[in-house]
Amino acid sequence: HASIFSQFLMSRDICILESDKLASYTMMASPNTSVLEPSVARVRPPSRQAPISPKYMRDPSTASSKAAVLTELNDSIALPVPESESTAKNAKKKYEMSIPGVTIMENQRYTFAITLKNTYQVKQLVKERFPGRANKATRHHLVGQVANMQVKCIRRLVQSGLGVILLDNDNAIPHHDQKYNQTDNICILIDPYKDKDLLLQEFKREKDELAIKRGNATSRLGMATLESLRNVCFSPALELQLTHNIIRNAFRDYDKEDWVLDHSKDLYCWDVVEHCFPLHDRVFNNTFFKEYRKRTFDFRFQKATTGNSERWAIEELRLHFGERVAFLFAFMHIYAKLLLPLMCICVLYYLGFRWVPGYTWDAYLLGLSFLGFGVVSIWAPSLLLVWERETRTLTEKWNLSSYRDTIFERNDENPNFEYVWVKNEITQEMEKQPKESKKRLIRATMVFFVVLSSIIQCIVLMPFLQWYVWSKLAPVCGSSVCVERGNCRHFLNCFNSPTSTVGTDRWAYILIQGVILGLLIDTVFFELFNWFSAKFVSWENLAKKSDFENRLVHRRFVFVWSNWFFWFLTLAFFYLPYGNYVNDLFRHIGWGWAVIYEWDPAVLTLDTLFVTPLVVTQLLNMILETWLPYIIRKIKGRPASCRTACSESCFNGLKCVKNMKERKRKHRRDANMTAHKLADEVSRSTRFFVPVLGYSDDSNEYTAYEIIAESQLPIFDTTYDYLDASIQFSYILMFTIVWPLLPLPAFLNNVLEVRGDAFRLLFGHRRPMPRRDASIGEWATVLHYANVIAITVVSGLIVMYHFGAIVSVWSGKYCDFEFDNAAMVPFRTLNVSLTRAPEDCLIFLETSDWEMAQIFTFIILEHIGFLLRYLVLQLEKTPAAISNTAYLRLKQIRELTNARTAHSDVFDYIRQLRDIFDKYDIEGSDHLYETDLIFFLAEWMCKDPSELQKRSGMIFRYMDKNQLGKVPFSTCCLMLQHAQHDRFFSVLLGIYDSLDDYRNVKFIFSTSVIELDVHSF
């Protein structure tokens, strides 16, 4: 064994420099080939590393802003077209459309943070997992076990090649921002750039593993290496995914199967990990947000449908935060840009009639009918069509056809999935089977809950309706009604202003009502229905995370939509047309006290009913989603009891913290592992040096307290942004027909909302893991649902509120009003005394058979609306820029010329491996079973087969990626290429680990490698 190990050390690094300027290959000889075959050098394949490491590519001084950026595993690098080629300018532009570039670099050194649980938190976890007296021995020695697991986590992170530092959580470190560090949790910062080739090797290994799982391992063997490409770097989003994958693999216990881990009573690495999350780059955030505020919108109408394809902010968000975040901002930009012309048309239309003298109300309603019907049947589907075209453009530009290729995305398991382990009788493997759930009963219960929620909303909102009616009908103080009653009190049951004009006392009273109603609808009901929708979907017990998210989108839209629009639809179709019958019903059942004044529908115009709730709810959204989290974070940035002292001086701050923590310090040190103790223990047991710093030595300067505070922030989620947009979209479609100014507050809200979303993403929430979505997903379907529902609602509003004016225009305009005297009420409840010809109008309203005419008109309008929507959506959905013949041919040429054959040394490696493989492939099936695989590996590694047989089961399960029960030759080739970069695989094979010489010797000479891995790693 000693001679084998020495020969391995002598022959492990043999460099062969090729004359080609574009490549330099590092060759590694197979162990001990000089002993067994001195005349033949069995070589390993060239490492596929780029000449420029990602660490230096993050420096703007060395990386060009035009550098090609890898964003996912299956990206094909698009090389620029040579200037000498006589290609059209537009073709060249389309060709380069697929080459992303980073314009604002991230310069932080530590990209991930891990917080470890303290002893108390692990104790609570053990109690939940093993209730009662189960596993009492584990609880009794919990302090030592938690400390051992924390040391194990640090050791595995270091052995995986990551740079690791601990933040001091026990001492107050003086700093210019007065940051305090005392916490009960260990804070670890991860530096993936310590080894400049780590991310490149992980990228290569993941590409190989992806090819194995897809069955493309054979074709992968002949592909060219990455070092033939220069000036290529990873996007920050892909770097985060690669780093997350390294951390996950480091903490994974490969020596035990998943079902064994589920039933085990031992603690594992993830049991002591509280949070593992990516960190914000503060310098990038400040720079990006400063620039984003200047260039939020580019209001050039000709760029309305193509601006996102060239918008730098969307590209930057995509490269730094992933496609899911980028699609949100792209959609909001398209939505706001197309809302702008609609807002201008509606505002100009309203202002054109508002101050025109004479009887203009019928003409106003006639034009408003066409405008509102055009919004729902032409503008809305046009917006959906434009967004579909933009989606296809971005999908082509960002190469999203294989969007599940990223490392993070392939883990699609629902974390809330409830299952049982069942043995498959065919494969003899343990598989997850979902627990039985009565889905039909759940869906029936959901329908019952929708009906019940409507009844509850009727009960809760009816007092608000009556209260609002009372505030509009309350008399003026000093009027004859007050004199007759003798009990009028200002602002309680009477007002000085007869109308609710802005600034009056009646307006202030109604504003208070709107705030209370907005809080009830936007906060109480909204959170309640969100909780119920999530609960119903969780009861369905879906196995895949994507299925869970898609189902949740539909459930939330149903519940939240009904919650938001119940108030408005009830007013429009029930209360205003039949308010007098409602008052009679109240008097009949003994609730006459709720009906104080006579019913006058002209006072409750439908257009004014939308103003207060809409504006108030949008303002509440802005406060609750953007301003409040930022204020809370600012307040929690320092210990609350020391805030005043910290503002005076550094000395007072340190003294305050010392006094506050002195009594608890001894107990904390005894019960929990501190950062210094943990670092000392790691150094003592493994000889790894792990530095302990007061704050991170990079541009962020994070302290332990700030990492803990950041871990408590909510993760930025696009769900509520899309939900708010869909609700607002429904507002505009359904109620522009009665209030043309509705797009104005919606547009102003979107202008602030886009900046607010950027602020929440960068400063108010925890950085999300990048997600490679191919579109906005099911939210596009939800918008189509809203459009379909709106056509029906608008048709109903036209026949109920506008139909009389439309008929009156063609019948003599008997019921026409002046604009100041008109009211947006059902036309059969009009105050005819204010019309042009009161007597003729009364006859006109009483003699016509309105019911049948309204029903017939409703059916016709609905069908016309659906027909127009269908015709708009039949327009071309694929932009000409990506569908023309020139682009398609250029794309084909790129794909055909982009594939490069591997270097000849790779084929030498495959030939040598094939010669040994065929010796044990007796059946000629190009696959090896477990026993033959061990002998094959032993001969290739020049080892005694008995060394590998001790852990043959783990080796075979680890190499059988597709669970075929046998391992193909192509899998062996790819896995042996990157074996030295795979922590667990290198331990299983017993090959040299360059991270720890001391432990390498123990691997080589140990007779129990499995025990070493389980207990030491």
Automatic annotation (TrEMBL):
Membrane topology: Multi-pass membrane protein
Region (Disordered): 40-61
UniProt KW keywords: Membrane, Transmembrane, Transmembrane helix
Claim: Membrane is one of the keywords in the record: yes
UniProt GO molecular function: chloride channel activity
Pfam family, one: Anoctamin
Domain Anoctamin transmembrane: 318-873
Domain of life: Eukaryota
Protein name per UniProt: Transmembrane protein
Species, as recorded: Thraustotheca clavata
Lineage summary: Eukaryota, Sar, Stramenopiles, Oomycota, Saprolegniomycetes
